[in-house]
Amino acid sequence: MTKLAINGGEPIRTKAWPQWPQWGDEEKDQVLQVLESGEWGGFNDAVKEFETTFAARHSATYCYTATNGTQSLEAALRVVGVGHGDEVIVPPYTFIATANAPRLAGATPVFVDIDPATYNLDIKLVEAAITPKTKAIIPVHFAGLPADMDALVPLAEKHGLYIIEDAAHAHGSTWHGKPVGTIGHIGSFSLQASKNLTAGEGGILLTNHEDLAGKLWSYINQGRQPGGAWFEHGILGSNLRMTGWQAGILLAQMTRFEEQLQRRQENARRLHTILAEVDGLTPQAWDERCEIHAHHLFIMRYDQAAWQGVTRERFVQALQAEGVPLSVGYTRPLYDQSPLAAPFSRHLPCPATEHACRSEGTWMHHSVLLAEPSAMDDIARAIFKVREAIQEL
Q1: Where are the domains of the chain?
Q2: 195 is catalytic
Q3: Could you tell me which CATH class the domain 25-252 is placed in?
Q4: pLDDT digits (tens, 9 = 90+) for 365-382
Q5: Is the model's pTM score more than 0.90?
Q6: Active-site residue, selected from the candidate residues 135, 195, 215, 385
Q7: Which CATH number fits the domain 256-392, given the four candidates 3.90.1150.10, 3.40.720.10, 3.40.1780.10, 3.40.50.2300?
């Protein structure tokens, strides 16, 4: 009889998973260059170099770095005119920053349910949430999978709404061959420590709209005007500039970016093939219009009924004991968080989100997908082992 590791048996995998972030001499060299330059702040040459590099990689005309992804979202909302009395449509299954940003700008987040197959905003449900107060929509490209932009863009155009892409998970992801971040009006990326591209903290704003680009630059730089005097401030702005230290780290990180992106994709496809043989454990649907999927997370949807009633939490504990770093992800919708509950927000019925939080969602961090290909077989063996020994749970 198979004895599970959670019950004292031998685990499937004891080898360590890849660390994150990954770094080497390239980062050391970049930091030393910034140190010796004497310009450590946001006007270090490394900042502009990184902005140029990231813009080119994402087919963007304009790219501005920022302090973090929360403030980049807030900046995007402010420059399109979102403020007190406005509403912004957001999904309730995402990190809290997505909905905090509208509140910080003075607006009301309006939660619309996710598509249960993708965990992205369900575009079919969005129109029912639109009111005369609606000013913008923030689709989250959750786990790296772009939201259905084919459906969202014409809907937003019909109602005269701005689209702010939350691409915090989606560095390098594409939709119909176009990198995310410029499909809507403004794209916001995070460079926080867990993200696929990181400097510990940081954010990025992309746009192909010249009028919005000028406003973004001005807001990030204390309301200064491009080409204007240093102590001349035309609008109310803030200081969101990234430091030279962060930009130097990011330039080094970019040297590994393509190889890491490719490895995540290859290992994710391997897991998709494996999971096709497992009832009750379904990976996030990979829309064929998304040619490149960043896979910040690898999502597996757990069906408790197919696992003889074993709870998601117990299943996750069993996989962890076998050496698979699985987690349950979010356990409550954003509208159940105190800063985002009524009267600070409103929400439509969100049964898919409730189910994902309560009993279905499981995640693996993208660093798992940076392991050797045979590591995906370790994950498979652990899943099948738990499946065979389900009575032990």
Answers
A1: 25-252, 256-392
A2: yes
A3: alpha beta
A4: 999 999 999 999 999 999
A5: yes
A6: 195
A7: 3.90.1150.10
